[in-house]
Amino acid sequence: MRRPLVMGNWKLHGSKASVEKLLVELMVKANEVEGVEIAVCPPLVFVGQAERLLRYSQIALGAQNIDVNRQGAFTGEVAADMLGEFGVRYVLVGHSERRAMHHENDDLVARKFEAVKAAGLIPVLCVGETQAERNNGETKDVIGHQLQAVVKRCGRKAFDNAVVAYEPVWAIGSGQAASPVDAQKVHEFIRAQVAAQDPASAQALRILYGGSVKASNAQALFMMDDVDGALVGGASLDAQEFSGIFNAAL
Ligand SMILES: O=C[C@H](O)COP(=O)(O)O
């Protein structure tokens, strides 16, 4: 039985004051629930503040990005080991915004995935197709390649102790989530791809859906067999809305 995971990706939002307000509100709401794992990924600069606030909470801490290097002359970068010191448990890799705006290709994403694991943290590999790729019937090809790049670098057991998030690019921030049935088809495909490498990892693997998840559509998505939670952007910035989502996973 896979424990559902609901993660908030705050992207480039927040201030010291808003981080404190949101986390205090979320901690109260999270205390009332069991049976779902909740995590938040603030901008890196707020990770220390979030660690202090979450010290006695069950909410896990995630990060939105790392550099592939562990140390050295890499101005402006942050390593996975450094985040581990601040209690970070999850790190997003391969988010479509980083693939598109920061030119992260499959190979670099795979190296980041490897670096997260080497630091003893859990990578959350984001995969998904653009609208054009969907229109051309290329969804499975695109996602297959994104998964294969990680297997090529990290081996058949790559997805042991990892998370995959299916985020169709066309659904992100659009208000138009994938239908539960469409999401399920892709999640099933992802699990089958992983099972072809290692059946045990596939069985344990949590596959999250991301893209315009809200309190009002979360439950229908979570009812699908292979949807094990959500990676939530905009709706994770509001405690009421985000708690509506993680409560739907119970
Ligand atoms: O990482 C989160 C996704 O990009 C989804 O964002 P969204 O919930 O605002 O559509």
UniProtKB/TrEMBL annotation:
Active site: 95 (electrophile), 167 (proton acceptor)
Record has Cytoplasm as a keyword: yes
Subcellular location: Cytoplasm
E.C. number(s) listed in UniProt: 5.3.1.1
Top-level lineage group: Bacteria
Main location: cytoplasm
GO molecular function terms noted in the UniProt entry: triose-phosphate isomerase activity
Catalysed reaction equations from the record: D-glyceraldehyde 3-phosphate = dihydroxyacetone phosphate
SUPFAM superfamilies attached to this UniProt entry: Triosephosphate isomerase (TIM) (SSF51351)
Residues that, per the record, bind substrate: 9-11, 173, 212, 233-234
EC category: isomerase
Keywords: Cytoplasm, Gluconeogenesis, Glycolysis, Isomerase
GO cellular component, one term: cytosol
InterPro entries referenced in this protein's UniProt entry, alphabetically: Aldolase_TIM, TIM_sf, TrioseP_Isoase_bac/euk, Triosephosphate_isomerase, Triosephosphate_isomerase_AS
GO BP: gluconeogenesis; glyceraldehyde-3-phosphate biosynthetic process; glycerol catabolic process; glycolytic process
Pathway involvement of the protein, from the record: Carbohydrate degradation; glycolysis; D-glyceraldehyde 3-phosphate from glycerone phosphate: step 1/1; Carbohydrate metabolism; erythritol degradation; Carbohydrate biosynthesis; gluconeogenesis
Entry annotated with the keyword Cytoplasm: yes
Sequence similarity: Belongs to the triosephosphate isomerase family.
Function field: Involved in the gluconeogenesis. Catalyzes stereospecifically the conversion of dihydroxyacetone phosphate (DHAP) to D-glyceraldehyde-3-phosphate (G3P).
Subunit composition and interactions: Homodimer.
Name of the molecule in the record: Triosephosphate isomerase
Lineage: Bacteria, Pseudomonadati, Pseudomonadota, Gammaproteobacteria, Enterobacterales
Gene symbol of the encoding locus: tpiA
